[in-house]
Specification:
Length: 265
C-alpha cells in the first residue's frame, strides 16, 4: 500500500490540534508562550494551524512538553498512550490505581504556597510556590526550587535546572506525590492531608528525600500546602516572597501545623 502523504495544511492542522491539547494544562497562553520563548501572536498562529514552527522552535516545543515530532502526524493522545508505565498493564491496578481518582474537590487545581523545614539547616524554613493542574486525566504538580537552595549545594540555578514536576496520587485520607527535577536521579515523596481551616484550603503532611542518611541533614520534614486559587497576581506575590525564612517569620498557625520544636514521629 503506498504511503499516504499529507499536505502542509494538514500537517499544520494536526500540529495545531495537538498543541491546543498540550496547552490545556496551562491557564494562560501568554504565560505558556513566555515560558517557551515564543511570541504570543506567533504562538496563536501555531494553535490555529495558520503557521508552522521552524525546526529549532519545534524541537523546543517538543522538549518542553516531553513529546516527539510525531505531533505533526498523529493525535497527541496516540503518542502518549501506553508510554506511561503507571497506566500500563503491569502497574495500573497497583501504583497507578490512584492516578485518575483525584477530583477538584479533593485537591483543586491552581497555585499553592508551601512551607517546610529546611533539610540542610534546622534553624531555617523554606517557602515556595507550585502549580497543580490536570493533564490527560492525571494530576500534575509543577514548581521551581529557589536559587538559594540550589546554589548552597553548588548546583546550577538556571530556570530549567530549578524546575521540578511530579505526579499526584490519591491516598485513603489525602494525596501523595512523587516529584523530581528534570534529569535528576533523586526525588522526593510528598504526603498531604487536608486540615480544618477557615477557608478549607490547607493541607499538612511531610516530604521525604531519596538520599542517604547523614548526621547533619534530615531526610524527612513536615510541610504545609496552602491553596491560593488560580489568580496569577496572587501567585506572583507568593513567588516573590519565596525563599528561606526563620521560625520567627512563620505565623502561629504555621508553627502549630509544622509542630515546631517537636521531633518527627
Amino acid at each position: 500500500m503506498p504511503e499516504m502523504r499529507r499536505s502542509p495544511a494538514e500537517l499544520r492542522s494536526m500540529f495545531g490540534q495537538n498543541l491546543r491539547i498540550l496547552a490545556e494544562g496551562y491557564p494562560s497562553i501568554s504565560e505558556l508562550s513566555r515560558q517557551l520563548g515564543i511570541n504570543r501572536t506567533q504562538f496563536n498562529r501555531y494553535l490555529s494551524g495558520e503557521s508552522f514552527p521552524r525546526p529549532d522552535v519545534l524541537a523546543r516545543i517538543c522538549d518542553f512538553f516531553d513529546v516527539d515530532a510525531r505531533v505533526l502526524l498523529e493525535p497527541v493522545q496516540n503518542i502518549m498512550s501506553g508510554s506511561d508505565p503507571l497506566t500500563g498493564p503491569s502497574l495500573k491496578d497497583f501504583v497507578g490505581a490512584g492516578v485518575g481518582l483525584i477530583d477538584e474537590l479533593i485537591f483543586p487545581s491552581g497555585f499553592y504556597r508551601f512551607v517546610r523545614a529546611s533539610f540542610l539547616d534546622p534553624d531555617r524554613y523554606v517557602t515556595g510556590l507550585v502549580r497543580v493542574f490536570r493533564d490527560n486525566g492525571a494530576t500534575i504538580v509543577r514548581g521551581y526550587e529557589t536559587r538559594a537552595a540550589l546554589s548552597v549545594q553548588g548546583m546550577p540555578v538556571t530556570r530549567q535546572a530549578r524546575e521540578f514536576r511530579g505526579l499526584v496520587l490519591r491516598q485513603e485520607d489525602g494525596v501523595s506525590a512523587l516529584i523530581s527535577r528534570r534529569g535528576s536521579h533523586t526525588a522526593s515523596f510528598n504526603y498531604l492531608s487536608r486540615v480544618t481551616s477557615f477557608e478549607n484550603n490547607v493541607w499538612v503532611g511531610y516530604v521525604a528525600r531519596t538520599t542517604q542518611e547523614t548526621l547533619s541533614n534530615d531526610r524527612v520534614v513536615r510541610m504545609i500546602y496552602e491553596h491560593l486559587g488560580r489568580d496569577f497576581g496572587t501567585a506572583k506575590a507568593a513567588a516573590r516572597a519565596s525563599g528561606y525564612c526563620t521560625v520567627d517569620d512563620l505565623t502561629p498557625y504555621q508553627k502549630r501545623l509544622l509542630k515546631v520544636g517537636e521531633p518527627f514521629a
